[in-house]
Amino acid sequence: MNVPAEAPADCPLCPRLVTYREANKVSVPGGFNGAVASFGDPDARLCVVGLAPGRMGANRTGRPFTGDGAGWMLYETLLKTGFARGAYAARPDDGLELIDCMITNAVRCAPPGNKPETKEEANCRPFLASRLDALPRLKVIVTLGDVSRRNVLRALGLKASAGIPGHGSEFEAGPYTVLNSYHCSRLNTNTGRLTAEMFEAVFQRARTLIDAA
Ligand code: URA
C-alpha cells in the first residue's frame, strides 16, 4: 500500500489520540486540533524529526513546533545556521521560510502528556517513512530525543538499537547521516540539560555535512 507523507488532519488510526483531539476541540477552541503536516522545503537535504505536536503548540497552530516553548530554540537555531529565513513569531502566518530543511514529527497528532504509546508510534511510522522517502535530496536527519531517533531508524527499516543514543551522537542510517540531539523541550532547556550552544553545535554539524556533500 502506498502511504502518503502526510496523515489526513482527521486521521482515525489511533483511537486514544482521536478522543484527545475531540476533547481538545472543546478545550482549545479555534485551534487546529488535527494531525499536523510537516513544514518546509520539499527539496530539503536536512530533515528535523520531533516527537509529536504539543497540545498548545503545533496542535493549536497547525505548524510543527509553532506556539510552544520548544519552537523558540528550534527556529532561532535554524535561522542562525542558515536553514531558515525571516523571523519566527510563534504563528503559522509569521512568514518564516525553511531553506533546505523540512520539519516533521514521529507522531503527527498531539498525545496526552506529550507521550505517545508504542502502538501510536507504530501506526504513524509509515507516514514518517514516506516523508523521508519523499525527500529526493535528503542527506542529514536530526532526531530530537530518543523517541524520534528510534522511530527514524525503524522507519528506515533498521533496528531501533542500530543508532547511538545521547546528545551529539552521529551515525549512518542507510543513505543518511543521523545527528541525535536532546529534544529542545522546555523541560530540557530550563534545566540546562540542553543549552543553546549544545543545540546549535548539532545544526552546525548538519551544515558542515550538507555543505561538503
Ligand atoms: N512541537 C512539535 O511539533 N513537535 C515536538 O516534538 C514538540 C513540539
Features:
213 residues; alpha/beta; 6-stranded mixed β-sheet; two-stranded antiparallel ribbon; 8 strands; 36% helix; binds uracil
Give an overview of the whole structure.
The protein has 213 residues and is α/β, with parallel strands linked by helices. The chain has helices at 15-27, 58-61, 69-80, 118-133, 146-155, 186-190, 196-212; strands at residues 39-40, 46-50, 84-85, 97-98, 101-105, 140-144, 170-173, 176-181. The relative contact order is 0.17. The strands form two sheets. Strands 1-5-2-6-8-7 form a six-stranded mixed beta sheet, with helices on both faces. Strands 3-4 form a two-stranded antiparallel ribbon. It has a single domain (15-212), classed as Uracil-DNA glycosylase-like domain (Uracil-DNA Glycosylase, subunit E), CATH 3.40.470.10. The protein binds uracil (URA). Uracil binds at residues 50-54, 57-58, 64-65, 68, 70, 105.
Q: How far apart are the first and last residues' alpha carbons, in Å? A: 33 Å
Mean pLDDT: 97
CATH class label: Alpha Beta
- Biggest sheet descriptor: 6 strands, mixed
User: Largest sheet, order of strands side by side?
Assistant: 1-5-2-6-8-7
Bound small-molecule species? uracil
- CATH-level-2 architecture: 3-Layer(aba) Sandwich
Radius of gyration: 16 Å
How many helices? The count is 7
Extract low-pLDDT stretches: none
CATH superfamily: Uracil-DNA glycosylase-like domain
Count of spatially separate domains: 1
The ordered H/E elements are HEEHHEEEHEHEEHH
**Number of β-strand runs:** 8
Give the CATH topology. Answer: Uracil-DNA Glycosylase, subunit E
Task: Please identify the structural class as seen in this structure.
Answer: alpha/beta
| Overall geometry | globular
